[in-house]
Amino acid sequence: MTETIIAIIMTIGALFVLLAAIGVVKMPDLFLRISVTTKAATLGVGLMLIGVVIHFSDFYTATRSFAIVLFVFLTAPISAHLIGRAAYIIGVPLWKNNRINELEGHYRQGTHELQSNKEEDSSVREGEDHDAQL
Amino acid sequence: MTLEEYITIFIIPTLSISVLLVFIRFLLGPSIPDRVVALDLLITIGIGFIACFCVVYNKSVFLDVAMILGLLAFLGTVAFSYYLEKIRKK
After folding, report:
1. What is this model's ipTM?
2. What separation in angstroms does the CA of B11 have from each of A77, A115, A126, B5, B15?
3. Which of A4, A13, B69, B88 could hold A47 in an S-S bridge, CB 3.0 to 4.6 Å?
4. CB contact under 8 A, A25 and B22
């Protein structure tokens, strides 16, 4: 009975990891790949560690497994955000069917800080276009 | 079929296929952040492998290795993103 439950849980976890791998290969864009990786693989690894906890069913293993699960669940979104922000700043191209780019012009050029208004930046760009036309 | 045989026959090959697929993206990846994401996913799948081996060999000592691997994946991604931002600044 317990072995059946462990087998089902670890199979679901392995299938989620396989889905994450297929998504990393098939998705057209870096940011879509990040969104696949940070959700599906984290859930799959968490399910497999829960299977380990059920198999051993002692306090020593359960503590370390939940520490690993907590650590992975805490750090996966942070690392995804960091690498996505760095990729957006260095100009990795978006998907060709992407229509709205709401962050455009909101990162300050030198310091990479977010700013809420993009008037000065767009005015600078318009001035550059004006100079180029002249 | 015991649980060890089931894990050896079905789950570890599933994880191996996903490692191969991620490695395709690691080789092809058009930009450096693609490769960083693929490396992060490879290490996360490695944690899954360690969980499988814990059940197969009935030893829970391997979980310490999984914890260190998770720490190294996070540190690697943070370091890569930090230095990727530095490229454009100068």
Report:
1. 0.90
2. 26, 47, 57, 10, 6
3. A13
4. yes
